[in-house]
Amino acid sequence: MTEPRADARTTTPAAAEAPIVRSGYLYWVMKVVLTPVLTLAFRPRIEGLANVPKRGPALLACNHTSYLDWLLLPLVIRTRRISFLAKLEYFTRPGVGGRAQAYFFSATGQVPVDRAGAHASQGALRTAIRLLREGRLVGVFPEGTRTRDGRLNRGRTGVARMAAETGVQVIPCATVGTFDLAPPGARIPRPHKITVRFGAPMQPVCEPGTSPTAEQLREWTDELMARICVLSEQEYSGVDAVGRT
User: Fold this and answer.
1) CB atoms within 10 A of CB 108
2) How many domains does the structure of the chain reveal?
3) Residue whose C-alpha is closest to residue 51's, from 196, 221, 208
4) Which domain holds residue 74?
5) Backbone dihedral angles phi then psi of residue 97, each to the nearest 5 degrees
6) Which residues are 46's β-sheet partners?
7) What pTM value is reported for the model?
8) What's the pLDDT band for 14 if we cut at 50, 70, 90?
9) Can you give the pLDDT at residue 24?
10) DSSP string covering 26-80
11) DSSP 219
12) pLDDT digits (tens, 9 = 90+) for 72-128
């Protein structure tokens, strides 16, 4: 008996992995230049840093209240490089300014994420999984975009899927006070003390090689967001984030 042929009209092509600059040399240059400036400006209070492993792979899952978030985590995690999943628009804007922005994000080792749909983001997720398997530290904002009103929004299940695929721990973390300093639309924050908190690591929803159900992914993600909510002291909206930031 012959095998039935796959219908070409329903076959989904495999998503290509997102490009990433391996050296990320500009990441370390920016750390050297910005660390003393940001430390003086924001005087960060750090809680739970011991929960971040000094070596080996891990996922950092953080709330997203301001563009400062991706600067503050590297500020307080000083000895490891974090590769963040960043929205694709940062890499594709036209003009000289757009090319400079794309160079900056690429040279600091960030991974572009296409937020147009589930399949569109698969390439970036595959890249993040590969980095985790290489022992990297990967930063993710599970809400998908910045909050518009200061509340913590519902998390997307990508973090749960990456953890399940690789077996790595997920460290919930939060920046506190950054929304008031630099909410969406603000360009220049005013100096003020902020807090960065790291919670106890979460184990993946299931063992590597086991496929979790959609219900398991949703339940695990909701637990992750509940822990982030405690760390961030935000009100929880219970709905998906909307709007461009």
Assistant:
1) 23
2) 1
3) 196
4) 25-183+192-232
5) -65, -40
6) 196
7) 0.81
8) very low
9) 64
10) HHHHHHHHHHHHHHHHH--EEE-GGGS-SSS-EEEEE--SSTTHHHHHHHHS-SS
11) H
12) 888 899 888 898 877 666 676 788 777 776 777 776 767 776 655 555 567 677 888
